[in-house]
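Hi all, a correction to my earlier message: I attached the wrong file for AraC family transcriptional regulator. Here's the right sequence:
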Amino acid sequence: MENHSQLGSYENRFKRVTSYIYEHLAEDLDLIKLADIACMSAYHWHRIYHAMHGETLAATVKRLRLHRAAGFLVHSDLPVDQVAVKSGYANLQSFTRIFHSVYGMPPARYRKEGSHTVFQQQQANRSSHMYPVEIKTVPAIQAVTVDHTGSYMDIGKAFETMYGCLASRQLFRPGMRSIGIYLDDPFSVEEAALRSKAGVVFEGPIPAEALLAPLAASDVAGGTYAVLRYKGPYADMRVAYQWLYGEWLAQSGKEAADAPAFEEYLNNPRDTAPTELLTDIYLPLR
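and the right structure:
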């Protein structure tokens, strides 16, 4: 009983800190303040977080801020200085320098020349070979998941919660398959109501401890899938979906099955440059 109580305590601390970070990315996130939210000394909390998440708190905050900034640059017309402020950077100079160091180009140039613009250019040229797509037979999958409601760009919050729970229960293993299941069409459902699930796949039976709240089991239907290999920042991935549904599906002669699409993340954003991220998008087919 004591172990379960201690386990719940650590998981609640992880969840509090994760929620606070996502809700206050545009503000000054003092690391001492985050330690206070976790109800631990800064020295010990930072070490525990690093051990369980594989990156420091400072690295997490930086990664999430730049992910948000990339989303604003791709999907909004906000001026770059406002993107900097909304992403938690006090001045445009520091934002530009940090963004360039991670994304390989300054934010204004990224808006004009990032990977999302390749789609726009090739769409204008009516290219039908933008992304590699394979037809695969996929076995049924049972994943351990955490539910997320809201912008798909913020599903990382559910992933952080899931990884924290698995790590605190000593269930996380390097090389586990990470997937995201997306239940709604972001063009027809209000952003605040979008449903998705952050998940990992265990090799073999799922341990009982992996199914205690907030973790749960979710089934992914087996069958025939069109699998698109996408390379680049997560913020740009929407254009790949537009091409897959709007161009490839119509030209393929295939029909989408009555099941949600899912993504498998083939490398880790904690130690991979955004431009090198690999994602397989699985579209179920009849």
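Sorry for the mix-up. The radius of gyration is 20 Å.
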